[in-house]
Structures are given as structure tokens and as C-alpha cells.
């Protein structure tokens, strides 16, 4: 009963807070369809702002009310709890403009699809993000995660990033000021709303060949026919000659199944949803992977994916 009345109060508070904010608002929105692994309960409220100004206004309202929120891109690096999110989720679907700003530069908003951006750049004869074709996130998510492949990362094509702070301030930061590192950035908490990228001119055929080659390599090594969330753990940075996937394979966990999820037979660092998988199943598999690799190899794997649960399981060393 008590939980119910707390939720009711929160809901009324959020309704009052969002009145007249301009953005589309959905209540009790199931979140599994917004993730690539198709797992997760409902968000109490999901908001779809249509402009950077609307996001700044939202941030101001939420900060005055001290209401926490989460930013959702394409949900390709996220694990959402089975009982959902009892709070505000902001989805950047409608921030999807891309505009050329020079011969080799373009401005793109955070909600634009990263694979579509690879195609866009290719059509302009711009090389440098062919790798994005196989990363099923948004531009905002790619900047937030500094997404990339060995030897190439999003940070290297970023000219500047526009960001809305928790209090609604809109600021633009140079690449150096963004403090990028392996699968992370150093920006203060807030919303990445747009990016200017600088690429290199190259023959379209060359760019296309590279993109196709990278996609082919992925199809051969990753379990792309099942819902998944990409690499579960980061590669250990002090062991350049190995990878999280190889370590998990060496401790004989490939193919191991818990409930509706399984460590892929094709790639040890991928968990696939065979149907009906839950966040609880994924967490249990992750714990097993981490414990076994630590026990047999002495390596503590650090999750790459983000967990949106209210409390972090002990083995989950990362933050939102
Ligand atoms: C099949 C597959 C292959 C993949 N391959 C790769 C790969 O090769 N390399 C790689 O690096 N990753 C890979 N990934 C992981 C994932 O696609 C990337 O991390 C991607 O950049 C996440 O973007 P997203 O929009 O889906 O972010 P989400 O999963 O929605 O969010 C991830 C995190 O970023 C935050 N975030 C998202 N958008 C914003 C924003 N605008 N402002 C502030 N914070 C934000 C979220 O709050 C969350 O903490 C793969 C995933 C899959 C499913």
C-alpha cells in the first residue's frame, strides 16, 4: 500500500512538473521494445522532447524539483530492470537533424541513428566513421560511450559536442574538453544534444568497401540474429593481447544458459536473448562470467553495458 501511494504522489508531482512542457509524454511505457536485447519493464514516464530548447526547459524543471532522470538513445548498450523504471526517461528520438557545415564537416543531432550516419557520410564522400555502420546506437549514445572498434573510436571524428547541463545550460565543448577515454567521456552529467564531426574526403567506392568489409567481419563473429546488447564487458586495458570474449571462451562458458538468455556460442562476450529472457537472467550470467574469469584467470572484468537498476549488483563496477 505504502509503495502504491508513494508512486501515486510521484506521478502527480511529475504530471504537475511537465504541464505545458511541449514534449510528448507517455505513461507506463514498456521499455523492452526500446532496447536491442528486448528486455526490461515499463518506464513510469517517457518524454520525447522535439528540440534542444525543449530539453533545456525540461532540465530546468527537473532540477528545480530535484527529480532524477535517465537518457535513452537506441538502448543498444543498456540493461533495464524487469520491474522497470520508477521515474523519468527522456528519449531523444525526435532530435534527428543532420546538416553539412563544410566540405568535410557536419552537424548532427543526438537522436540520429549512428549506422544511418555512416551511410550519410559515405554519400558525401567522407571517410572516418565506416565503423558506425555496425553500431546500432544513436549519435548521442556513441558520443556518451565513445563507441568504436579496435583502433578507431567516435572521439577521433568529434570536432565539438553541444551539451545541456542538469540546470538547463546549453554549452559547446571542443573534443579536448570532452575528456574522452575508452568507452567513456568526461563531460559533466547532462544531455548530449548534438555533435559536429570532421571527417576526411575519400573516394566513395573506398569508403563503401571498408564499410562492407567491417559489416562482413561482424556477421562472421557476432550473433546478430538474436537480440543482444553488444559486448557485455570491456576488454581488459592492461592485457592488449587478449579480449574479454577470449577469456570467457577460455573458461568454457560459451553456450552456457540461464533462463531465457545464453552466452553466445559464436562470441564469448555476447549474451543473447533466446526468448523470454529477463534482466535477472542476464545479471546472473554476468556474475558467473565475472567470477569464473577472476577465479581461473585473475582478471576482473568490468561491465561495458549500463545497468539502470536502482542499486548496483556487487559485481557491477560501472555507473549510469
Ligand atoms: C550488435 C551490437 C554491436 C555493437 N557493437 C559495438 C561496437 O563495435 N563498438 C561499441 O563501442 N559499441 C558497440 N555496441 C554497443 C552500443 O551500440 C554502443 O555503446 C552505442 O554507442 C550505444 O548507443 P545508444 O544510443 O544505443 O545508447 P543507449 O544504450 O541508449 O545508452 C547508453 C548510455 O549512454 C547514455 N546516453 C545515450 N544517449 C545519451 C545522450 N544523448 N546524452 C547523454 N547520455 C546519453 C545513456 O544514458 C546510457 O548510460 C554494440 C551493440 C550491439 C547491440
How would you describe this protein?
The protein is an alpha+beta fold. The chain has 3 domains: 90 residues, 2-Layer Sandwich (Uridine Diphospho-n-acetylenolpyruvylglucosamine Reductase, domain 2), CATH 3.30.43.10; 110 residues, 2-Layer Sandwich (Uridine Diphospho-n-acetylenolpyruvylglucosamine Reductase, domain 3), CATH 3.30.465; 81 residues, UDP-N-acetylenolpyruvoylglucosamine reductase, C-terminal domain (Uridine Diphospho-n-acetylenolpyruvylglucosamine Reductase, domain 1), CATH 3.90.78. The protein is built from 8 helices and 18 strands. The strands form 6 sheets. The chain has a 5-stranded antiparallel β-sheet. A 4-stranded mixed β-sheet has the order 1-2-5-3, covered by helices on one side. Strand 16 and strand 17 form a beta hairpin. The radius of gyration is 20 Å and the shape is globular. The two termini are 30 Å apart. The structure holds flavin-adenine dinucleotide. Flavin-adenine dinucleotide (FAD) binds next to strand 3, helix 4, strand 9 and strand 13.
Amino acid at each position: 500500500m505504502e509503495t502504491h501511494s508513494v508512486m501515486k504522489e510521484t506521478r502527480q508531482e511529475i504530471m504537475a512538473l511537465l504541464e505545458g512542457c511541449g514534449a510528448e509524454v507517455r505513461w507506463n511505457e514498456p521499455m523492452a521494445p526500446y532496447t536491442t536485447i528486448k528486455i526490461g519493464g515499463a518506464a513510469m514516464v517517457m518524454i520525447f522532447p522535439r528540440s534542444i530548447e525543449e530539453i533545456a526547459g525540461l532540465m530546468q524543471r527537473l532540477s528545480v524539483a530535484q527529480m532524477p532522470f535517465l537518457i535513452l538513445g537506441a538502448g543498444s548498450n543498456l540493461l533495464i530492470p524487469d520491474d522497470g523504471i520508477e521515474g523519468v526517461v527522456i528519449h531523444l528520438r525526435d532530435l534527428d537533424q543532420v546538416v553539412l557545415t563544410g566540405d568535410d564537416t557536419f552537424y548532427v543531432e543526438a537522436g540520429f541513428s549512428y549506422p544511418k550516419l555512416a551511410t550519410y557520410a559515405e554519400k558525401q564522400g567522407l571517410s572516418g566513421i565506416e565503423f558506425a555502420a555496425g553500431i546500432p546506437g544513436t549519435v548521442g549514445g556513441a558520443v556518451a560511450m565513445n563507441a568504436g572498434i579496435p583502433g578507431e573510436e567516435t572521439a577521433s571524428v568529434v570536432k565539438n559536442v553541444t551539451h545541456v547541463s542538469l540546470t538547463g545550460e546549453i554549452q559547446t565543448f571542443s573534443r579536448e574538453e570532452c575528456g574522452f577515454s575508452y568507452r567513456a567521456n568526461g563531460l559533466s552529467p547532462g544531455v548530449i544534444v548534438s555533435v559536429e564531426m570532421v571527417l576526411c574526403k575519400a573516394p566513395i567506392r573506398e569508403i563503401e568497401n571498408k564499410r562492407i568489409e567491417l559489416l562482413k567481419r561482424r556477421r562472421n563473429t557476432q550473433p546478430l540474429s538474436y537480440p543482444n546488447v553488444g559486448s557485455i564487458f570491456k576488454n581488459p586495458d592492461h592485457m592488449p593481447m587478449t579480449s574479454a570474449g577470449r577469456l570467457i571462451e577460455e573458461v568454457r562458458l560459451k553456450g552456457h544458459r540461464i533462463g531465457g538468455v545464453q552466452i553466445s556460442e559464436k562470441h564469448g562476450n555476447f549474451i543473447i536473448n533466446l526468448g523470454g529472457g529477463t534482466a535477472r537472467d542476464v545479471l546472473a550470467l554476468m556474475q558467473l562470467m565475472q567470477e569464473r574469469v577472476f577465479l581461473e584467470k585473475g582478471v576482473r572484468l568490468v561491465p561495458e553495458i549500463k545497468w539502470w537498476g536502482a542499486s548496483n549488483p556487487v559485481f557491477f563496477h560501472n555507473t549510469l
